[in-house]
């Protein structure tokens, strides 16, 4: 089994595209031929080196703010006011920006949201991103609700890494936490990903005290029965921008609970970025 722990306290090593404006000279519609690769003689990789000398080769692109769940720790039940579609990056703008990062040295791109699978042109985006010369990994983080039926085509379009969010193994608790039904659909998506050969299938689990902290060892046990990596993520306890620590379960506490139950669990690797540790039985 393999378990990952992630702390929220360290510096993020992901480069996020957060443009709310539209780029000039955009390409035509997404049905047009594959966007032209921008010629650059010398990659300007120094653009991706931070003040600590770390080279950032990992780009995260949020495709949409929309989501088909209303997770308690993420979004209010009534939803949020969405950015007008006219102000979101189009398919071709995403490819153009991603290409600039790839020729500068980025070799991994992760698609996030919101929920990326609700974007209608997701397949075209994956197809064109996966064709960028120099890109090694095209990943996506998804809640898995509609993933199962979309995943075969997404894999054909070049999506080669996957994180599926699942915070509980109990259907009733899933409905309570997400304010929606769909636990069985997420489990089906995990199984579909395994069947399609995704290795590893990473399962993201946000731990909250008094809600799902009693399932930590159940998630670890699940790795004995399914070829998945479970990644426990600390809850970010903000309520109206006021720090609220009541539901926070620190990663050290998660680790202690796992280690006390699974004595053979040992640290197998340590990320150079100190917010992440991996353990394996």
TrEMBL record:
Cofactor(s) the protein requires to work: [4Fe-4S] cluster
Lineage: superkingdom: Eukaryota
Coiled-coil annotated residue ranges, if any: none
Presence of the UniProt keyword Iron-sulfur in the record: yes
Secretion signal, residue range per the UniProt entry: none
Boundaries of every Radical SAM core domain copy: 51-276
Record's keyword terms, sorted: 4Fe-4S, Iron, Iron-sulfur, Metal-binding, Molybdenum cofactor biosynthesis, S-adenosyl-L-methionine
Record-linked PROSITE patterns: MOAA_NIFB_PQQE, RADICAL_SAM
A GO molecular-function annotation: cyclic pyranopterin monophosphate synthase activity
Pathway: Cofactor biosynthesis; molybdopterin biosynthesis
Pfam family, one: Radical_SAM
Any one GO BP annotation for this protein: Mo-molybdopterin cofactor biosynthetic process
Cited PANTHER family: MOLYBDENUM COFACTOR BIOSYNTHESIS PROTEIN 1 (PTHR22960:SF0), MOLYBDOPTERIN COFACTOR SYNTHESIS PROTEIN A (PTHR22960)
Protein name, entry field: Radical SAM core domain-containing protein
């Amino acid at each position: 089994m393999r378990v990952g722990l992630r702390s929220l306290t360290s510096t993020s090593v992901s480069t996020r595209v957060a443009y709310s404006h539209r780029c000039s000279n955009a390409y035509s519609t997404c049905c047009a031929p594959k966007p032209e690769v921008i010629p650059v003689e010398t990659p300007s990789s120094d653009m991706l080196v931070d003040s600590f000398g770390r080279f950032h080769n990992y780009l995260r692109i949020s495709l949409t703010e929309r989501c088909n769940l209303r997770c308690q720790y993420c979004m209010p039940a009534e939803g949020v006011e969405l950015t007008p579609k006219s102000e979101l990056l189009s398919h071709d703008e995403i490819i153009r920006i991603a290409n600039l990062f790839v020729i500068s040295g980025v070799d991994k791109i992760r698609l996030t949201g919101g929920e990326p699978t609700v974007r209608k042109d997701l397949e075209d985006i994956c197809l064109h991103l996966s064709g960028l010369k120099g890109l090694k990994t095209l990943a996506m983080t998804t809640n898995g609700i509609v993933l199962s039926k979309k995943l075969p085509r997404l894999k054909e379009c070049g999506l080669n890494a996957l994180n599926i969010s699942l915070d509980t193994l109990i259907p009733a608790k899933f409905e309570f936490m997400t304010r929606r039904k769909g636990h069985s659909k997420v489990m089906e998506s995990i199984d579909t990903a395994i069947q399609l050969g995704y290795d590893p299938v990473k399962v993201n689990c946000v731990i909250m005290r008094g809600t799902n902290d009693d399932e930590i060892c159940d998630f670890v046990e699940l790795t004995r029965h399914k070829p998945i990596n479970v990644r426990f993520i600390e809850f970010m306890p903000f309520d109206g921008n006021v720090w609220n620590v009541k539901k926070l379960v620190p990663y050290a506490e998660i680790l202690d609970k796992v280690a006390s139950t699974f004595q053979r669990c040992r640290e197998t690797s340590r990320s150079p970025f100190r917010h992440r540790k991996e353990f394996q039985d």
